[in-house]
Amino acid sequence: MRRSVAADIFRVEPMTGAGAVGAYPLVRMWDPHRSQAAWRALASHYCGRRAGRGMMAVRDRRGVIHGLFTYHVQRTLRHGTVLRLNDVIVAQMPGPSLADIVVDGADALRRDLGCDALVIDLPVSHGGLPPSAPGSHPSRFKADTISFRAEPD
Asked: Is the whole model's pTM more than 0.90, yes or no?
């Protein structure tokens, strides 16, 4: 199988505390209200060796961070052991798809961690489902994420 051009340019690897400091400008583009202190607190929760959770960075050959995601392992009745991605941030840029790099890297991590499934939670950009949408309640609940489950090969 031929590797994609993007796979030759980018790699997905564990985020370190020092790397998290360098990722702050990318985080600010995604969430302008996120303070540096709040980002450091979140990063310290996920960076380093902790069983079942972590943070991964998408870096180019020069080490520049173009994307990141947090993850944790959970057990579910429906899917067994699941690798769940949250806080997916990917820079918008021309050329190879960083989203494909994130999915490929997360799927490799899923296999490394022995998980049965990969679930990716993405924010709902328009602020929630309309009140008439299935699963929504007009006065109390709004969807803030949409989950996608990748089928393993």
From this structure: no
CATH class of 5-150: alpha beta
- Residue 126: CB partners within 8 Å, gap ≥ 6? none
What is residue 134's three-state secondary structure? coil
Kindly report the length of the chain.
153
With a cut of 70, say whether residue 40 has pLDDT above it: yes
Q: pLDDT digits over 94-130, tens only?
A: 666 788 888 899 999 999 999 999 988 877 653 444 4
Smallest CA-to-CA distance from 55 within 45, 64, 63 is with 45
Dist CA 60 CA 117 (whole Å)? 27
DSSP H helices, 12-133, are: 17-30, 36-46, 98-112
Q: How many CB atoms lie within 10 A of CB 47?
A: 21
Strand 10-14 to 80-90 pairing? unpaired
Tell me the pairing of strands 80-90 and 117-123: parallel
DSSP secondary structure letters along 112-126: HTT-SEEEEEEE-TT
Domain positions in the chain are 5-150
